[in-house]
Amino acid sequence: MARFERVMARILADLSGDHSLDELATTACMSRFHFHRMWTAHFGESPTGTVKRLRLNAAAPLVALTDRRLPEIAAMAGYRDVDAFSRSFRVAFGQPPEFWRTLRIVPKPMLPHKKGMDDMHDVQIKEIGQVSAAALLHLGPYARLPETFSKLRQLLEKSGAMAGAQGEICVYYDSPGSVPEAQQRAHAAIALGPEATIPRGADTLRLPAGRYAVLRHVGAYSGISSAWDWLYGHWLPESGEDPEPQPAYEIYLTPPSSGVPVAQQVMEIRLPLRRYG
Known about the structure:
Strand content: 15-25%
Order of helices and strands: HHHHHHHEEHEEEEHEE
CATH architecture of the largest domain: Alpha-Beta Barrel
CATH topology of the largest domain: Multidrug-efflux Transporter 1 Regulator Bmrr, Chain A
Number of strands: 8
Strand order of the largest sheet: 1-6-8-7-3-4-2-5
């Protein structure tokens, strides 16, 4: 797709450049969150991984077929430290630079490990109204989100607000892999009626009304990761749609705490889309 081609062209035009996630997302005219999700799902590697792979592929013939000094090649590949370059080169191609230079053979270029997407998912574009929720901000590994949800349920039960609960929601503000796990941010939320009073200690979260791509997932929540990959890696690039800057969110229509059998659990991923015209 055109936005990916722009990003690739920018990277290849200056392999030694910084190419931060924010810069590449701007080139793609997407938010940081959506760009990282989409790129990683489509190519099977993060944007940072792509930059590293292209740099090492470009460095390989310089190492094997020229007499340029390794520090110079390392700098051209974006490495300030020749030892770090040599370690990355060995991991990528199985042997250190000196090995390939002695043989005068260029190692086979690395290719992205694109994920297979055998499982198809139904995605529909829908008009979704504003969702009001009580929420707690989560900071840290996403694997620990159940702890934050547990705290939120206790808070709402104590205040009596759980009686109006309409579904549990998770809003992720960082795409997995885009920041260290300790810095991952999300809101654990529970949707309430528009007139509900948010108890003290909880944030008021309002998810805007608009056009959404809605992927409905039925079954164990352990399959959610592949559903995200399908939505961002297959559906979105082929749809011709552009996401809004705000992140997508999950809404668990049968929360894990509801006791519904695994095979009948229902959740949706809602991806906000730009409105045209």
